[in-house]
Structures are given as structure tokens and as C-alpha cells.
Amino acid sequence: MPNIFTNCCECNNSSQTFKDNLLILDYLNKSSIPTEIGIKVIKLSQNINNCDYCSIYGRTNKLCDIHYKKAKKSGKLFGQFPNKSFYTNKNNGAVCSTCCFEFII
Ligand SMILES: [Zn+2]
Ligand SMILES: [Zn+2]
Prior knowledge:
mainly alpha, 5 helices
């Protein structure tokens, strides 16, 4: 779920990144940077990647760097299933957890 700091679909309010960002926001606040600006700065400082399979399902799930790395690992894993050969053409691709679920069923 995206939160105030990111459009990543897999980040949530209990993730370490969210907690880290809260600390950064607190620090920015203490340096007299207003909350709205702080949130914008934090959001802009983060890299956002696309899941390589979402387009097949008409989705556009976005992933932060941490979740993109995880999605790349899932991509490698799914590439090893012969019956998923449709996907193996792109076995270096990133698979978000929503797509992982589609692959399993
Ligand atoms: Zn994330
Ligand atoms: Zn996806």
C-alpha cells in the first residue's frame, strides 16, 4: 500500500523504510522545514520502479528500490518453472507480489 512517503504498492506503515522516513521528517521539521515540504522532499528522493508483469494484467504497480530487489528475486524464481515458460522470456524481470499471486493460481 502506498503511504505518504512513497507510491510503492508494497510499502506499508509498519515497514522499516516508513519508520526511517518518519525520523527524516522529524529531523526536517526540527530544521524548520514544513511537514508538507518534508514529505515532498522524501517522496522525490526515492526511486520508483515498475513491475515488469503488471502490464499483462493492466496494472501499473510501482515498487521502491527495496521491494524492486525482492521482485527481481521472485522473477528469477518464477523463471525456473518450465510450465511458466510464457514468463521465462523475461526471467530477469521483476514480479511484484500481486503478480506472484496470479502466477501461483
Ligand atoms: Zn516498497
Ligand atoms: Zn506486478
